[in-house]
Amino acid sequence: MKTEQFVVVHDEPMKTGECPVWHAVESALYWVDIPGFMVHRLHPASGKYSSWKMPTEPSAIAVDVDNNLVVATRAGFVYLNTSSGELEDIAPAPYDTRIMRFNDGRVDPAGRFWVGTLYEPRDQAKAEMHVLEAGTLREAWRGGMTNSNGLAWTPDGKTMFHADTTTHRVDVYDYDVASGTPSNKRNLVTFEIDKTSGTYGGRPDGAAMDSEGNYWVAMYEGGRILKLSPTGELLQQIDLPLRCPTAVAFGGPDLRTLYVTSASEGRSKEELAQYPHSGKVLAFPVDVAGLAQPEYRG
To answer: Architecture of domain 3-21+91-285 in CATH?
Structure first.
């Protein structure tokens, strides 16, 4: 892709921008800066920008059926009133907040808000997966991952995608939409782990599904977005003018704009000088429409 096709839609660098979500009713893009404790909103057509400070780290966002904003934070799930800035508690975090926090999350086709966790010591696979369903939080599974990311569902809702960034794996599950139950876990792709190898290309972070059932995943430290087929075949690689993309979302009136969040925190001075767009939010046109994100049904 030609460099000039990338547009910087938000020029202030995030520490760790994450979980972009397109709000169709508002024609606006929402995202978070996790260590910055901020929720951000941009109306691309007008350039109007707003932000809200959160008491603990926000990590994932969903829009509900009444166009309210649901935010997963370290302390639990809350409603954010974007008019008043007021917060309303939904469900407290079900884990030890000293060593764990919520991370990436997406809404499934039936309106459940799935959010995995990050086990911050990163020395064991102790992360968890939780589901907010009609205002009640339940545990889907525990362990087997350290840094949960990359949730997405195919257009028919029958397959769930999930990444564990620490192990560089993307797995898929058969998915029962009626019960919200994943089964038959199998590996879709595992990326190179050895950073000294000539084939290291980053690790899978946030992702989104297009309307044809292809999986678009941000490769943190790889400076690229990968488009994978439902069977894991590499269909397209998009090289970015930054090294640490964190997540992607389809947006715009026709869902043919791909928005990319990124990170700047913890990166070397040399890297930031080489990649001055680090931490910014980018956008570029794509040939296939994205899959519209379902609304959370609280």
So the answer is: 6 Propeller (2.120)
Q: In which residue are the tokens 């009133």 written? A: 81
Q: Which residues pair with 89 in a beta bridge?
A: 78
Residues 266 and 188: their CA atoms lie apart, in Å, by 30
CA gap 129, 151 in Å, rounded: 11
The domain locations on the chain are 3-21+91-285
* CA count, 13 A, side-chain hemisphere, 282: 30
Tokens of 26: 């508002």
Torsion of CA 9, 15, 19, 25, to 10 degrees: -40
The residues with which 138 forms a beta bridge, in sequence order, are: 131
Q: How far is CA 174 from the centre of its chain?
A: 21
Q: Measured between alpha carbons, how far is residue 82 from residues 53, 86, 142 in Å?
A: 11, 8, 33
- Of 278, 243, 240, which Cα lies nearest the Cα of 258? 240
Of residues 281 and 2, more confidence is placed in 281
| pLDDT tens per residue across span 115-170 | 999 999 999 999 999 999 999 999 999 999 999 999 999 999 999 999 999 999 99
Catalytic residue among 33, 164, 205, 210: 205
Amino acid at position 78, single letter: V
- Any bridge partners for residue 204, and if so which? 219
Residues 70 and 116: their CA atoms lie apart, in Å, by 15
Rounded Cα distance between 191 and 200, Å, is 8
123 is catalytic: no
pLDDT digits over 68-112, tens only? 999 999 999 999 999 999 999 999 999 999 999 999 999 999 999
Q: Is the distance from CB of 278 to CB of 267 less than 8 angstroms?
A: yes
78: helix, strand or coil: strand
